[in-house]
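Sample entry (162 residues):
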Amino acid sequence: MDHSSANIPAIDEIIDNFSLLDEWDDRYRYVIELGRGMSPLPELHRTDANKVQGCASQVWLATTICFDSDQPVLDFRGDSDAHIVRGLVAILLATVSGKDAREILAADPIALFDRLGLREHLTPQRSNGFRSMVARIRADAQRALSNIPRASWLEAVNLAAN
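Predicted structure, serialized as tokens:
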């Protein structure tokens, strides 16, 4: 997914902006702002299949898989009913969306979450929810790398989109 189409800045820009904010209140507002700027998830993607289990708030992640030189590339769209969680979704999507499955599995969004100081300032439930989102994204990347023939994946993606 082109982050500009989802109104999510690149992860490097998010990290730079965090470094400019000294006070946690400013960082908290920035996370909320990231979520507000994110394109809304269409209602057709707010399904039980896209709902992330293990989150205190409602969170949906919709995954689209395409192939670049036979490597699965995953694009994600997401949303939440909680402002701060929506911002966390934006940070996560900026980190992993549009990457090939191997890059996603090699990424460490939890370390980034910690580096940005989010764990120490958010409730344990929010931190657990973030870990649940990461687990869901990693599971999708792992499935994309499985031995399912490409035609079956395209069929599965098309079924999920309908």
